[in-house]
User: Fold this.
Amino acid sequence: MSYIKSTSGVFIGILFILLVGYGSASGQSNELYKHAAVVSAHPEATKVGVAVMKKGGNAIDAAVAVQFALAVVYPNAGNIGGGGFLVYRGNRGDQDALDYREKAPGSASRDMYLDDKGNAIADKSLFGALASGVPGTVAGMVRAHDKYGILKWKKDVQPAIDLAERGFAVTAQQADELNRNKERFLKYNRKPVAFVKEGLWKAGDLLKQPELAATLKLIRDKGRSGFYEGPVAEAIVKSMKHTGGIISSADLKDYQAVWREPVSGQYKDFKVISMPPPSSGGIALITMLGQISEYPLHRWGFQTDSTVQLMVELERRAYADRASYLGDPDFFKVPQQALLERKYIYGRTADISFEKATPSSAVNPGKLSNYESEQTTHFSIVDSKGNAVSATTTLNGSYGSLVVVEGAGFILNNEMDDFSVKPGSPNAYGLVGGVANSIIPGKRMLSSMTPTIIEKGGKLVMVVGTPGGSTIITSVFQAILNVLAFDKDMQASVAAPRFHHQWLPDEVYVEKGAIDPETRARLAAKGYRIVERGPMGRIDAILVKEDGSLETGADPRGNDTGLGY
Assistant:
């Protein structure tokens, strides 16, 4: 079976758009590029990444430029007030993983979002500055550039400054999002912010951000200290005092991004390279791909009852393990090796029955043999030398905490909700966590972000990832299988309708168009509760074909765009 089957995904992508009404087909065909490619959530950010590589930059230079550009043109998730993960693969097969996830402030405490009866207080970990962790994006980009960048730092940051100063035309989707959040921005900010206008936003309106441009200039000129010290840091702390947040100047100055060893595993002959904890995504993805490689998916077919049932049961077990065993490895001894042991991975499938659903109430975290005590954005890049970057970055909820740092022009995250505010209590995405992910000062919250790179025989095959909160892991899982098991091209893979299960609640969520009615009926008869919901994730991916050309896949659920040269 070839991973580069070249049947066109254009018709499938357009049909999906017509069925569910997501975006337009512009920029979303499976384009081929000879040298380099970028796929991101916004066309302006994608153009910036390509331009940087044309000027001699590599994949990391492009990643830095795209990250800062997204902070301007995709403010609901692209950011300098949040954090993320980056997986890197060099053209010689070397691998690295950068953790620039946010941290709990030094004054944070385990029960800070509970009332006097020990119950979680609604919205306290979601809105306002108290919901914010210490931002990591700027520190992450500095560390990535210091280790792998080849252009001058200033050249990588300057395109974002230009976008913030001259402005960019908002898309119809962005105009709608800004209008829907207008009252919230007014509620959580004392002074006017760039995201609110007197009337309503409409497609084509120019969004200029002079305060953000000034912040980016400080970052351009002073690097890390331009954000974590000086005027920007002072503005963050001042915003904390005015809005009830607890991030201090010491929290900012002490923050460090961390290089970690990627997790890796196998799907048939393919090597899967992904993010380790505090991401839960890599371990869960590798576990499920390893388990499913033993089954004849290609013969069963795409979204047939057997295929869907097996995938749901694997997802159910992976998310059960996520709830108990995964957290920040700097604070909790994550049993990573035990979770990835072959015997454990395949042992988890022993009780799967194709006759009926396994109730989530009957699925507990697995017993380890040696256990020791939905808004985000993604971009994928391959440069002309074959270096690859898969990066997922986030504010958590759309527009994060909704707090815009006064005088600095950027939105703070609401990542504190990704901790287990109370063990057993679900977060904004319905995910349940335990003690492993409890709040501790300086700790990084668990994440579902799953930036992933795939190779075969020592050669790069795919760069993939997505936003989507709790649906990230399962969306990446499906995108990979769509190509490697079902012979879809990259664009058809990311456009295909998706489904999701996360252990609790015990429901199979499906997009419109996912799983045909007859198959849904057969699954329901076996005890699966199927619930239709809105779009899941926005996958941005690149597939390397056998002739070395790069095939982009840009998700039609948004304004995502793939370009290259």
